[in-house]
């Protein structure tokens, strides 16, 4: 059911939304740049932009998070995530008894109540909308294919199968999509821009590819699906960024039956934790694994590696269902920003080694992600390396 919400026709219809919000993001980044150094922390604006995108595409709701820099629902989602991460880093609070005695429990319950009420209200409004659209019938026909044709948001696809899911299940699915879809794409977008800033030769190649693609028609137009498909070099850049900055530091898998791994026998019912970064920076699969090299994702290079040597969104049948969504969104955002701006290293973060990260349920910046932003219109030539 969840995967249906990320079907190709639906994701394709999201491209104009991605581009619209990318345009807003570009203006906000310029406004936030220091007037002297042209430097900016891109992490928060990008986070607000991806939240706006997931809000529109998943819930059909406009948060205006980019303009205001915050939203009650967004803030409480973040609080709920921080609470869960706090419990993981303080394992004694995984005990329900000890957790009930903590002040963190109050914060969690308060945020969860706001999240649930907000989502419940959206579900009720959307159900009424769908009923009005079927007012010519005595009883609405909840057909997922019919709903997909009429509407484009994830919530409407879920409601198309309302008779198969409880209200709580729909709410939980929506909250999961909001949390997972926002944080992972935000870190991926920010890290891609950051790595382009620190690898001018790669940024030049991306820009040249975009110039070629947008040389036909209006160069400021919304990218089409065909445009995104032609961004093959940019896709390699994004994948190489995800290899070095995996948005999901840990992947968990529960064993239905016992499994032997090396000398160890893992019993059925146990949970295995996988660290994608260890695999993705192994010299067994990548030559010079610490080097940023988009050619690691040339077709021949990919075919010569084990398919699970790249796990930024997981693997197997529980693979992240939003891979297509994420790639469409990141390509749209990064291509829009690079077409109009040159990104360069900031004084605050002069090398990639200066970028401080922490590994929780998702990858996070410790003190932001700073780059220098220079409008291309004010620069006659691409920066040469």
UniProtKB/TrEMBL annotation:
Its cofactor is heme. InterPro entries: Cyt_P450, Cyt_P450_CS, Cyt_P450_E_grp-IV, Cyt_P450_sf, Cytochrome_P450_Monoox. GO terms for cellular component: endoplasmic reticulum membrane. GO terms for molecular function: heme binding; iron ion binding; monooxygenase activity; oxidoreductase activity, acting on paired donors, with incorporation or reduction of molecular oxygen. It is a peripheral membrane protein. It comes from the Eukaryota. It is found in: Endoplasmic reticulum membrane; Microsome membrane. Keywords: Endoplasmic reticulum, Heme, Iron, Membrane, Metal-binding, Microsome, Monooxygenase, Oxidoreductase. Heme binds at residue 320. May be involved in the metabolism of insect hormones and in the breakdown of synthetic insecticides. Belongs to the cytochrome P450 family. This is Cytochrome p450. It comes from Sipha flava (yellow sugarcane aphid).
């Amino acid at each position: 059911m969840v995967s249906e919400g990320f079907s190709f026709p639906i994701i394709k219809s999201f491209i104009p939304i991605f581009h619209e919000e990318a345009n807003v993001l570009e203006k906000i980044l310029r406004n936030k740049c220091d007037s002297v150094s042209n430097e900016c922390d891109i992490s928060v604006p990008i986070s607000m932009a991806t939240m706006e995108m997931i809000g529109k595409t998943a819930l059909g709701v406009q948060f205006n998070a980019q303009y205001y820099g915050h939203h009650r629902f967004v803030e409480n989602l973040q609080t709920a995530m921080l609470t869960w991460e706090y419990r993981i880093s303080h394992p004694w609070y995984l005990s329900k008894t000890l957790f009930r005695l903590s002040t963190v429990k109050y914060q969690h319950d308060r945020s969860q109540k706001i999240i649930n009420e907000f989502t419940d209200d959206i579900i009720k409004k959307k159900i009424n909308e769908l009923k009005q659209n079927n007012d010519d019938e005595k009883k609405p026909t909840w057909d997922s294919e019919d709903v997909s044709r009429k509407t484009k948001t994830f919530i409407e696809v879920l409601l198309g199968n309302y008779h198969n899911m409880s209200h709580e299940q729909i709410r939980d699915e929506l909250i999961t999509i909001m949390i997972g879809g926002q944080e992972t794409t935000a870190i991926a977008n920010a890290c891609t821009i950051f790595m382009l800033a620190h690898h001018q030769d790669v940024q030049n190649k991306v820009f040249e590819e975009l110039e070629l693609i947008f040389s036909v028609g209006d160069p400021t137009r919304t990218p089409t699906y065909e445009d995104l498909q032609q961004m093959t070099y940019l896709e390699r850049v994004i994948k190489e960024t995800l290899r070095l900055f995996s948005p999901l530091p840990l992947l968990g898998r529960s064993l239905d039956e016992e499994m032997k791994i090396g000398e160890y026998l893992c019993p059925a019912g146990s949970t295995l934790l996988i660290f994608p970064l260890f695999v993705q920076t192994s010299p067994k699969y990548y030559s010079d694994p610490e080097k940023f090299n988009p050619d690691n994702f040339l077709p021949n290079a990919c075919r010569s590696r084990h398919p699970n040597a790249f796990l930024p969104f997981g693997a197997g049948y529980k693979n992240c269902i939003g891979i297509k969504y994420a790639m469409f969104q990141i390509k749209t955002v990064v291509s829009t920003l690079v077409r109009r701006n040159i990104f360069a290293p900031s004084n605050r973060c002069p090398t990639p080694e200066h970028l401080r990260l922490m590994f929780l349920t998702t990858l996070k910046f410790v003190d932001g992600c700073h780059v220098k932003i220079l409008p291309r219109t004010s620069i006659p030539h691409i920066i040469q390396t």
